[in-house]
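May I ask for an example protein's residues together with how it folds?

___
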Amino acid sequence: MAYRLSESGRYSVIVLEYGGTDAGPFIQMPAALSYPMNMARYDWGYKSEPEPHLGGRRLVCPRGKVIGGSSSVNGMVYVRGHACDYDHWAESGAHGWGYADVLPYFKRLENWHDGGHGGDPAWRGDSGPLHVTRGPRSNPLYQAFVNAGEQAGFVKTDDYNGERQEGFGPMEQTVWKGRRWSTANAYLKPALKRANLELVRCFARRIVIENGRATGVEIERHGQIETVTARREVIVAASSINSPKILMLSGIGPGAHLAEHGIEVIADRPGVGQNLQDHLELYIQQASILPITLYKHWNMWGKALAGAEWLLFKRGLGASNQFESAAFIRSRAGVDYPDIQFHFLPIAIRYDGKAAAEGHGFQAHVGPMRSASRGAVSLRSADPRVDPSIAFNYMSHPQDWADFRRCIRITREIFAQAAFDPYRGQEILPGADLQSDEDLDAHIRAHAESAFHPCGTCRMGRTDDPMAVVDPECRVIGIDGLRVADSSIFPRITNGNLNGPSIMVGEKASDHILGLPPLPSDNAVPWMSPRWREADR
């Protein structure tokens, strides 16, 4: 938004950012992705409340505390979401956010490179700020995963961000010339060269509201509290965790909850902080009988060599996030579009960089896309420095358990195909001895992890919807001069990783803020399985 709002030169824009610089290999080297999301320097360090359906575990919820936000600490996977996701948004009250409305903004933001792996150029953008690329897929396990999916009866897709999301194929990443292509690199740094844009490093405490209008932001800088005044509007883009927190600290939120903390209620919006959603996933891990996985580089000498090649030439293993094959499939007959996502990785390892077992292996990250479970972000205190309470309420819907068991069994079926015969050893996780529903449920309860896709806490909808927080132009209902534009406004979570849809929101919201007409609709019709009523493949 800073890029688009300052683009014409007509308006002065200030970006208030608490985090610091993104310089250095921990952020810029794609293969180092497990480091920044586990470093206090770059991450807010949030954890959920004890999750009652996951054995009381507190799951980590990384959020970027650095320029570029979470795009500077994420896994760099680029997924638009499915067309039906956005049509659902429009049907639920987010008028003007159907797929035909948002597709032009995805095209505007993209600078797409197919890497020689095919795709749908007519569906993609080629001149936007965000470079979208594909890894080299040089490890044979990447193609084995795709082939195995086809052998199991599923379809292939050359471009899950194009006409056909459903299927097995190459995964896309926000990496360019060997570097993480975050929103800081794509948008903010070029925009900061303009005289009408300023970056102020500070801690945002609350929105200043006078006579029903947002007039500025109260900040803390160098130990002093001051106010930054906005002549036109204040736009909150602080994540699905911090955006509702800032609204509530400013007197916008559930009236009774604000009163509990002694906060004056300026706009009683019960939906602020509610509707919290996320994707959970499991790692299904298989040993490899051939020493071809990334494990051979998972030692001090291997990491040093990869790091040196990246530092000198921006190429080699360090230049990819290693998520280079993917799949989107339907869990069962009667599901009209994909509700399971796979990330394939040719090593058996966790997001925190810890190997599950010594030795060669590979894994699929798999999880359901559209859980009916909902949680909430709430205040612990009226003190802005106190972290909010984050309760996802994971696995609270009975269908979640059936869907996750299906994820495990489908993944086992894929790994059992002939394409993996030259490589397949024993199952590492969950372990071949776990077969019954009860055993799988216990494994899910103990091992399901967040995919780090929180959203929905400032839901977009109709102005007469009491649970909506912003209207379809991202304006906070009941307050003038204030908007929210980030993943918190999603009415329902999209299919896949959320970085792409979040950037799309920034692009589209910018046109609303500037009073520009929306881009012309694109009525391209996406592929839907003709057999979705009868079969899952």
User: Anything to note?
Assistant: The mean pLDDT is 96. Residues 398-415 form the longest helix (18 residues). The chain has two domains: 2-22+185-263+271-276+456-514, 25-42+71-181+280-368+395-447. Residues 5 and 510 are 6 Å apart (CA to CA).
